[in-house]
Amino acid sequence: MSRLLAAFALLPGALWAAEEAEVSTHTLDNGMEIVVIPDHRAPVVTHMVWYRVGAADEPPGKSGIAHYLEHLMFKGTDEIPEGQFSQIIAANGGRDNAFTSWDYTGYFQRIAADRLDLVMDMEADRMRDLVISEEVWRPERAVILEERKSRVDSNPGAILGEQRNAALYQNHPYGIPIIGWEHEIRELTREDALEFYARYYAPNNAILIVAGDVTLDEVVALAEEHYGPLEPSDDLPERVRPREPVQAAARRVVVEDPRVRQPYVLRNYLAPERDAGAQEDAAALTILAELLGGGITSVLSQSLELEQQIAVSSGAFYNGTALDSASFGVYVVPTAGVSLEEAEAAMDTAILGFLEDGPDLEHLARIKTQIAASEIYARDDQQGLARAFGTALTSGLTVEDVLAWPDVLAEVTADDITRVAREVFNETSSVTAELRIGEPEVTE
To answer: Which of 33, 58, 70, 273 is catalytic?
Structure first.
């Protein structure tokens, strides 16, 4: 059992004088990791179970199985009939949900602290005793197909995003959509789901995160009672994914669709992820995204929206919390009468100017102050804080990395930002995506 103290003081002069935050950890004998984040302001807890498995861990040809299983996890056990899990949570004044990404699958409940025993009992029950009956697996697969149709196939922007990812990751499964390819979803079976469940849904592949009005001792006692008796998986594979080759050519994908109302151009570059004990480049890229496209004072906004007035919107984005290679993106939405070619050229000119001149030091200081403040304000979001730890821990980072992140951000220099920008803005490792207004189909 370990206790880690973090002041979360981000910059000299300490912007925040609140109490130090204590994050405690423990590991059960069956391998289940526990993280406790105390917050005694209200008698409420957020209970999360994160599994180190996501869409990027799926067997070849089985895309969508991780997300499909997330749905099936609500279909009941011998103890809790189908449809009752969320109803029981709601009847006790709580709410629950689940989510799947490429690197993780998570389940959470937010409920009164005196109901923590109940939600642990329920979550432990479905960790190893899920029932996937013949009556539920086919209808739920149909639900997934309908979800894909409504969220992806009926949305030109989502189609473009899916094709962009597939082009950006030429060998890595991050190029496969989380929801899955339609033709592979249609072939998923009950046996596929049961095999995936038996292999990955086990205490030695899970992280329990509890934030709220609790202590470590209270959480460990309940976890020992409910999760402790569960047997670990003896079939848990090492998380080794296909690696990206050296990319040798820029790629471009174009979606033209008459349903498009606002065309735009977006470019993604392969970029390094946050690595355990080595977060410096990711921190510099985080600040680079803010400098280039984080708001009205950003480089792209000032140039494209205010000075040239050729864009209604522009921006940059980066999220390095990933087990494998991340990406850095820039985009521009042109004003009426401005072509995508003109908008893209102006975006590239602004980026080139930044690479030549480097960041403005006053602007950099403001951005670092804003980021520091946002890190502080995030501590008021109990569920968001728990999610930040869960995302990081299932993506190869440690509790120490999460606690150190504000300090790593604070230490980023202008030279660091210029260096990572020049490394990341490599045309041959980029995909440019265009969303265009297409001609209506002519029916005879």
So the answer is: 70
